[in-house]
Automatic annotation (TrEMBL):
GO biological process, one term: defense response
Bet v I/Major latex protein domain boundaries: 1-95
Domain of life of the native organism: Eukaryota
Protein name stated in the entry: Bet v I/Major latex protein domain-containing protein
PANTHER family reported in the protein's UniProt record: MLP-LIKE PROTEIN 423
Amino acid sequence: MLLLKASDGKAKVAKEVIDKVDEKNKILIFRVVEGDLLELYKSFVITLHVDTKAANNLVTCTFEYEKRSEDVEDPNSLMDFVVNLTKDIETHHLK
């Protein structure tokens, strides 16, 4: 269960399951199975990929989703949350 506070100030809840763990390629895939996101999207999948080949590590977060209607906005507030979380983690590790 994941509790998020998106940049729009509203708390969001998402229950996720891990669909895939690929240790060799450093990929995690989560699928949302319950919660607020599924009120807006028919499906929502989050993929995390870590690239450690370069001098600096790189984490790529990808959202794959299907909107329930054309009126539904893209999940920009959720992406803002992920970006801010990543910045907080980086700040902590650089101390």
